[in-house]
Amino acid sequence: MTVDLKEKPALGRVIVITSGKGGVGKTTSAAAISAGLAKQGHRTVVIDFDVGLRNLDMTMGCERRVVFDFINVIQGDARLKQALIRDKRLENLSILPTSQTRDKDALTKEGVEKVLDELKQEFDYIICDSPAGIEHGAQMAMYFADEAVVVTNPEVSSVRDSDRVLGLLSSQTKRAESEGADAVKAQVLLTRHDPARVESGEMMNVEDVLEILAVPLLGVIPESQAILRASNIGTPVVLDQPSAASRAYEDAVRRLTGEEVEMRIAGERRPGLFHRLFGRAS
Amino acid sequence: MRQTKSGPALSRDPPEQEQWQTVSTRYEETRHGAMPGEIIPFQIRGRFLMALSLRVDVEADDAAFYERLDAQRETSPQFFDEAPMVIDLGNVPGMAEPERLRAMVAKLRERNLRVFGVQNPGVLSEEALQDMGLIPVLAGKDAPLPDARSSKRRKRAALRGVENKLVRAPVRSGQMVVCESGDLTVIGSVASGSEVVAGGNIHIYGRLRGRAMAGVHGDESARIFCQSLDAELLAIAGLYKTSETLEDAVRDRATHVYLDNERLCMEVIG
Question: Which of A51, A86, A106, B59 registers the highest number of CB atoms within 10 A of its CB?
């Protein structure tokens, strides 16, 4: 870390990106959110908790630079500084990749806590990219979280799994287990939203999803070719060329840091729909 | 203390399913009767077991019998799959024959119904049942009269009074909220894939999408209230309806669910 970055004490906020269901866009969102936070000047690190199926490093475009990983650090084979990869595009963004050859049992509560405590000394935001499911790996990713971003697609099975995860966040986390601590602050990030399919009734609308999940909305990310493109070239979508998706992620990031940002849905054909919900003018 | 429900259940098919519950004795005395400094290597706790009771109403358990049973299973598979089950032979004393019963148990177990006991075993001896891995379940009319000990226990429970429970957060998928003795009130919605269970009434100030079971200890006067009904399952004192059998008139409406003459009734309120 450079000297000027140490001037202000690190915020040390742990945010888990989780969902329950697979393939909803957790890793893409973790990459976009961490890059977005770093772009705003926050010292940010993103950790891959998907042991054995690592792909955050590919989404971030640093797979060739992995020498040591999260599991090496937990097991004491490497120091944290050796495993952290500094992003080439943003100097205040680091990546802690995971192991492709181990399995999720290598994650221990004590080990994860030690690594997170060390990271809290130097980073404002620690983004934990959770594996799919609700088993050990996902539980380790959420256990120490201060906040949670629950990534949900607007379809019934994804919403139901997200609901299950919200239940775990309110019962199986350190904050839930410690007396007097505030609950994990959970927000839902709706991804792969396609207004045309919502219109035709093939997809749930935003109100229906929020009615079921009963947590605040962090943002609505449109289904977009830009996301696929960015993933394929190993760039977080917010660092790629401007698109509706990157704007939506940037808005979500600003909301995550506490800014009030008006909710807009890219390509929404019925702008009145959202105004009715939030009572705001565009 | 065992309680069962008898009489006509919801369906009029030959095999009638009804739910019954067993509340085993709470051995609180065991825990407190230990000598100072002595470590008790175990703890005995009362467990609450839900099981299905299959009352056989016709003597012939032929192919048609199992066809009807399979059809019933298909209407609510999640309810039947791997469900503990007892067979009630009260109406068919002729079935109380080791060979016939053995054949029936095998056929039920094939269907993933976990038969563990027999109600009203008639002339079947306990040894014969044990041979088949079954236990006699004393219930309904066959239940022994309450003895002095259990009435004392009941008095103590009455003294303790009912304990109501209030939940101020949405009940999420996969969560189960149980209120053993009193009323359960939820301020928030009950998600699909979750369960709310109460010995008394259930009040939901929100949408009910999951399962709600009121009066689980057999209280037929228990009721369920919700602001919007879209339940996977509703049960009062063991009599249940699944989402498929809900009337359209009450769906998505503020609803009051109650038992009337062993029939689950629903009325729209407000």
Answer: A51
Mutate to test the interface with B, among A212, A213, A215 (most CBs of B within 10 A): A212
The single-letter code of the amino acid at B183 is D
pLDDT value of position B148: 44
- B169, B172, B188 member nearest A164 (Cβ): B172
Structure tokens at A31: 């990459």
In this prediction the pTM is 0.66
Of A214, A163, A136, A144, give the one whose Cα is nearest residue A21. A163
Helix A225-232 and helix A244-256, axial crossing angle in degrees, nearest 10: 80
Cα distance between residue A82 and residue A18, in whole Å: 27
* Of B160, B262, B254, residue with least CA distance to B218: B262
Q: Which of A250, A242, A241 is nearest to A35 (CA)?
A: A250
What value does the mean pLDDT of chain B take? 77
Going by pLDDT thresholds of 50, 70 and 90, the confidence category of residue A267 is low
Contact state of B189 with A214 under an 8 Å Cβ cutoff: yes
pLDDT value of position A100: 87
Is the pLDDT reported for residue B58 higher than 80? yes
Task: Provide the pairing of β-strand B176-179 with B195-198.
Answer: parallel
